[in-house]
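Form 12-C: Joint structure prediction
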Amino acid sequence: MPQMTMIQAINDALAIELENDENVLVFGEDVGHNGGVFRATEGLQKRFGEDRVFDTPLAESGIGGLAIGLGLQDFRPVAEVQFFGFVFEVIDSIAAQASRMRYRSGGRYHSPITFRAPFGGGVKTPELHAESLEGLMMQTPGLKVVIPSNPYDAKGLLISAIRDNDPVIFLEHMKLYRSFRGEVPEGEYTVPIGKANIVREGQDVTIITYGAMVHTSLKAAEEIEKKKGVKAEVIDLRTISPIDIDTILASIQKTNRAIVVQEAQKTSGVAAEVIAQINEKALLHLEAPVLRVAPPDTVYPFAMIEDHWLPSPSKVVEAIQRVLDF
Amino acid sequence: MVSQIIDRTTSDQFNMLSVLNQEGKVINPDLMPKLKQEQLRDLMKKMVFTRIWDQRAISLNRQGRLGLWAPVSGQEACMIGSEAALLKEDFILGSYRDIPQIVWHGLPLYQSFLYSRGHQHGGQIPKDVHVLMPQIIIGAQIIQAAGVALGFKLRKKRNVAIAYIGDGGTSQGDFYEGINFAGAYHAPAIFFVQNNQYAISVPIKKQTAADTLAQKASAAGIKGIQVDGMDVLAVYKAVSNAAEQARNGEGPTLIEAITYRYGPHTMAGDDPSRYRNSKEEEEWKAKDPLIRFRKFLTEKGLWSEAEEYQVVEEAKLTIAEGIKKADETAQMTIPNLIDSMFETTPEHLEEQKREFLHTEDQ
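Section 2 - Result
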């Protein structure tokens, strides 16, 4: 089976869907001739032509409006927001327009749009590139929010997102783009939106996480197993809206202890939502409060201190220890 | 000194296009659109109908029988003249005041009443009607129109997307982004600005330092034209020209129509006497689009008091029937709402639907 980086897997998924469905259009800033600032769309314009893969003027709100208009014309737009920190420029199109199209028209129209965007910390970007803003998206009714943690999931989830008839926010962690390769089958396959994945089995504690923090959590799980013999189960949410609560509940019924690890600031995000749902559905299975490992409620910091700000394996280990000691 | 080097104004290029003067006399015969007698009469019928509809809607709103209504009297030439210049397959993206264009383009009247009342069926546009639900956010339809227009171009269809916006809307970033995108893609779009002089209360002079709104087209490299928005023939001419050029692959046009709304911004408490005076209102009413077109048609023997009376009576009847049909439409429910969020309702929403229905039962 071929080994691919996540960026290659994303490029592969785009090519497959451009090939499969002539209504798929890929566009954004620099995605055409240049192949995207991360080369996610490398070679696609040459292969599929300028009517299918094209550059846009440098205006994110315009990109969002363009996607909605093309969606009304039965195209299947895959619009790139060059960095997700720029989403504030296109928040109306995403959160007030595309997400409401089906509701507003009573099902007459819909927005089959995939908004792709790089995000994520640890790569020393300028301000408003690395921010984890998925919490804003998950609080918007009508959106699905997907965050893959590896090449295999990225390809399968992106194909699912493009085929979805509702808007999907597809967030690609920059640190994962080229940091490792993974097995990626050739040709098409899908990973379902809304299904979590147990990436490590264990019976002592559940770590619920997503994106790059899956890898941080896996390191922590190995560390605490080596040191203390504690077997941690790690759940990769893969989709943060909707959350696959069934997989979480099944794990907690087994482990009775859980923590949630996220790269986004602590308050009102994925972790808060996961814990609220656990509280509603599995409180009596818990032997300890569910803890959050998350950065403080500040803006994403400048590059020199970001590594201190982001959750580390040792912070995850510390949280596991606390729920075990409770 | 700088002003000698840089000529700030470019408004000279944007002389107002007009066909009829206030007395209904043709002042620019070269610009007279080629319309058959029946088409001319149809423009008048629709303007009279729309004036009556506006009056009824204001009254129904005051009785609590209609919700959102943004009065349209004064702007009939803009609305009717522009819509009449379109083909059925051309796509309209309007804002909350643009209900007449949407209805004349095919949305059943009763659905517009349901939209006004806040019923989802108001937005369920029939399949063969090419309009989007009215936009509430100022300017969002401008960038969407660029997308719809690019879609026509990619599908190789000879159709146009027309977006309506007010004078205030031209200050939005989305206005610039939309006209710029459409220009960059050479897409078949028309951006129709109804400059009714006020964005709620803010007058056009406080909105921009630009002498005209039409000249904003220059920055995007698209065609710009100013038209007398109280002259239905001039509006028709401007839009049909822009549409023809767009269909021929000659790119988008920005049209600024100079007009005035006689009524308040909406029926939700706006009081125009706080920001404009009755002298100004009377000056604009002297330019009324119905009066001048009525004179024009009467002189040609194409219109009479009897015909106008008939249209008024028809309008009253049609509106009453529309309200009755809206009244008879089943109430929207919370499960309808929940099921309209996604193509397939996800499990967590199914659960919330069950919870909601359960609490309702208590």
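Section 3 - Comments
Chain B has two domains: 2-331, 333-362. The interface with chain A takes residues 91, 120-121, 123-125, 127, 132-133, 137, 140, 142-152, 154-155, 161, 173-174, 177-178, 180-181, 184, 336-337, 340-343, 346-349 of chain B (CB under 8 Å).
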